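Q: Given only this backbone (547 positions), what sequence would you predict?
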């Protein structure tokens, strides 16, 4: 906490500074003043937590200083210094909200006691303020959208984001648990998810906002009176709507679809290059099935690309038999031969071969008359992308990459775009993996060079260094030359020769000693290598330098 001292007697200021150990109390003296006017200006600028002030001062006295300063910041704690003759003024100061007063002559024990109490009071006040703010924030959160946490939980748990597969297990909750945990008022009846998805050629966030707001208002108006609970949330530019309604309102809910579709067509036919789909899942009557309910709406969203663009469509979730047929098509294309070919292309980072394989598989899996084409493309894209990520091993963040793929495929408005998203994401992950590989290689060479620089006197081999950096010796040799421009053995020899040159300048070292100090096996070999790289024998080099 910050402390400011005010007294017209400089020696009193110095006394206060040295009277106690301020640091021990976790206090810092941030400023001092010898009159009230300067003090007021500095207090407004420095905003101290505690002010210790005399009463009688030039300019404005201590009482006026307290009154004016507290106008700007009533959180400051004031401690007044007074003599016995000014005791009545000190008592008056208490009416201004002054924390306490000190009588002269000043005593360290009294000052410490007062400061400790002030510090404790301030901490308690800060804790109270923090508690009040936390309560306010919590209440605001509850009022503003704690209900939507339930939807967010459903959406986030619908997929295993590391594999892209839908989670099959039912939700382990009953209606009472959900109501208690999420402050909802769900009732027995039906639960239903709708997803509003916009496909637009020219990206325009304002259009998206307008559409979502329109759908929200229409859903409130047309469905609200028939629902026990009606909630909204957003996820990856999708408007997600949750309905809970009693059995007797089923027909009213079904009638509302027709009304909202009619309104949508009348309004959104005016928008160019935009297709708006309201995707409807299967209604369920058990909270434990609510995740599957959302997933069925999500699958309806996948199927939306079967409809023409430039219109408002309501897309209902279709038969699960199409899902099975799509899965069978994926198995037919994702053969062992395909995996082997794909693995070979991925290991070599051959983007062209990978794209050709994907093209062939898509062509083989899509059949002209089958509406399961969209689901095949979706499932196959996820399957092959996950396989690709496993080939990259630890160089890829599978959850991040898979989430990016799925979210981008959601925005695809055709089978062609789904395929384009897949190929683009594979290319992107290949770039990331290559960059990581380069970083690893750079580090490996750097470690090797540093080791050689420090251990040139010792026996150094390509095998021992490659083992140190966990690389194959042949690969490391190629890598080292590519990055350094010379062979590994040449680099080691040059490092030793450069050290030898320095030693040759000092005649106290014999050639035998220099060969030993620089890691050469013997003088003869030292002389041979030295002449190879310098054109001179060690003796010739020494004579040349000395002369």
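A: Predicted residues:
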């Amino acid at each position: 906490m910050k402390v400011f001292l005010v007294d017209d007697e400089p020696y009193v200021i110095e006394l206060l500074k040295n009277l106690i150990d301020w640091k021990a109390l976790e206090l810092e003296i941030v400023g001092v003043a010898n009159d009230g006017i300067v003090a007021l200006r500095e207090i407004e600028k420095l905003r101290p937590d505690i002010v210790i002030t005399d009463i009688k001062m030039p300019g404005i006295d201590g009482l006026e200083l307290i009154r004016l300063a507290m106008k700007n910041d009533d959180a400051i704690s004031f401690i007044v210094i007074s003599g016995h003759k000014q005791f009545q003024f000190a008592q008056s100061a208490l009416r201004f909200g002054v924390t306490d007063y000190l009588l002269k002559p000043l005593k360290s024990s009294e000052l410490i006691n007062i400061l400790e109490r002030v510090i404790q009071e301030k901490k308690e006040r800060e804790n109270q303020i923090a508690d009040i703010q936390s309560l306010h924030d919590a209440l605001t959160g509850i009022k503003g959208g704690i209900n939507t946490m339930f939807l967010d939980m459903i959406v986030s748990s619908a997929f295993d984001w590391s594999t892209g597969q839908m989670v099959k297990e039912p939700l382990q909750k009953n209606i009472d648990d959900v109501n208690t945990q999420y402050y909802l008022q769900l009732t027995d009846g039906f639960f239903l998810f709708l997803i509003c998805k916009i496909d637009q050629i020219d990206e325009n966030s304002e259009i998206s906002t307008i559409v979502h707001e329109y759908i929200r208002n229409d859903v409130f108006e047309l469905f609200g009176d028939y629902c026990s609970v009606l909630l909204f949330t957003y996820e990856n530019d999708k408007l997600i709507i949750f309905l809970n309604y009693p059995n007797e309102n089923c027909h009213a809910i079904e009638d509302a679809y027709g009304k909202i579709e009619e309104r949508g067509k009348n309004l959104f036919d005016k928008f160019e290059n935009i297709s708006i789909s309201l995707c409807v899942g299967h209604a369920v009557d058990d909270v434990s099935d609510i995740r599957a309910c959302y997933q069925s709406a999500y699958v309806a969203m996948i199927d939306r690309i079967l409809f023409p663009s430039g219109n408002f469509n309501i897309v209902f979730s279709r038969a699960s038999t199409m899902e099975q047929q799509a899965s069978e098509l994926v198995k037919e294309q994702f053969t062992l031969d395909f995996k082997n070919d794909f693995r070979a292309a991925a290991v070599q980072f051959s983007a062209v071969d990978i794209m050709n394989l994907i093209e062939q598989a898509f062509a083989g899996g899509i059949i002209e008359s089958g509406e399961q084409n969209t689901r095949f493309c979706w499932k196959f894209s996820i399957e092959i992308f996950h396989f690709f990520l496993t080939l990259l091993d630890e160089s890829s963040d599978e959850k991040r990459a898979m989430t990016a793929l799925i979210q981008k495929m959601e925005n695809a408005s055709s089978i062609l775009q789904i395929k384009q998203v897949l190929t683009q994401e594979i290319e992107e992950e290949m770039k990331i993996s290559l960059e990581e590989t380069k970083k690893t290689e750079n580090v490996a060479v750097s470690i090797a060079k540093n080791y050689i620089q420090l251990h040139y006197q010792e026996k150094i081999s390509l095998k021992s260094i490659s083992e140190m950096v966990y690389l194959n010796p042949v690969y490391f040799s190629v890598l080292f030359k590519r990055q350094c421009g010379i062979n590994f053995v040449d680099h080691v020899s040059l490092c030793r020769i450069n050290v030898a040159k320095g030693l040759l300048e000092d005649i106290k070292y014999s050639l035998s000693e220099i060969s030993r100090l620089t890691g050469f096996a013997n003088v003869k070999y030292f002389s041979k290598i030295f002449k190879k790289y310098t054109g001179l024998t060690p003796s010739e080099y020494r004579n040349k330098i000395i002369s």
